[in-house]
Here is the input.
Amino acid sequence: MKRRQKTSCDQTRERSVEKVTLARPEERGRQEPTDVGDLARTTRTKLEGLSGRSFRAFVGFDGCIDRMLSAVDRRWGPGDAFEAIETIGAFADRIARAKGAGTNIELFTKEERVGGNGPNFCNGLLGGGVEVECAGLFGNHPIFNDFRARVKTYSVGEPGLTEALEFRDGKIMLGYTTQLDAITYENLVAAVGEQQLFESLDQADLVGFMNWTMSFHLPDLLKRLQKGLKPSSQRLFFFDICDPAKRTVDELRDFLHSLKTFRPFGRVVLSLNRSESEQARFALSKESVACSAENILDYAKTLGSLLDVDLMILHLTDGAAGYDRNQAVYVEGPICKIPKITTGGGDIFNAGCALGLLQNLPLNDTLTLARNYANFFVSTAELPTLEKILL
Here is the structure.
């Protein structure tokens, strides 16, 4: 097969820092680029081994319909004959100018697809050949038909709805999330069966718990799950809290500290984006410190140490860092300047991390894989597979 043509999005740089020696910003200019092709050359054998091994995952518990929208700036005809508002700042200015009067902003639906942190994470895992079970909010909605064909699903309720206004510099997620109130231990057991639930968890190499922010019953659910879990040194627990801005600082701090209680049952991984990491640091230390490429290694080490998790991952739009008690690693890029889609990019990044961790790749290779996995998704709007990013 022919190698995929590289684009402006395929410029990757990586930096591995042994023994938690932190990289200085001025050093980063001397890093040699590592692009998708380099990733294939340095880790091809390990990644191809992943597709030949049998890994199982159990993921929960959300699920929604993602409606991707553009905000119309100027229209010159019907359908898609318009110019979109390109940045969040321009969108904010349009709203601000309506103060004292009002305004009309047209929203254009680009696409509807399966959404939710859990289902998006599952779709990324499928690209690595993982056998996936997912408990979430699917109902009987036909948008999940293809997902059901590829994933063993257990529905605990009806899906929510997210209207995602996408811009070149970010996205605004407008959520209808009362359906997530159905995520309770009782409903989970009713959907899966208690014996099957714990068999699935015990047999899983990877367990993903997503979207604490919108799942108010999740802490109680997780405590009750722990009572039936068997200890394992090999199982991965992967947590993604989702933007916690609407939760109280005390709630966030308590939940973050609860993650270490899963360590007797497996290795605990927490992945946060820039906003989530800043809110987590404030909740844990009362420090208001911006997270950036210049301090991301120290940031990852600080949060990982405060939380006592096995692996702390931070991902920004221009790079990612990880801290695993022994080393801090920074990977820069690739950066897609004109993404075709942004909603779900963080979930696909997390799936790439999980695939690397399942294969026991070195941390720098794991983060490089994850960055390229997410980059493929946002630059093509197609779900990635290991084969696609290695060709």
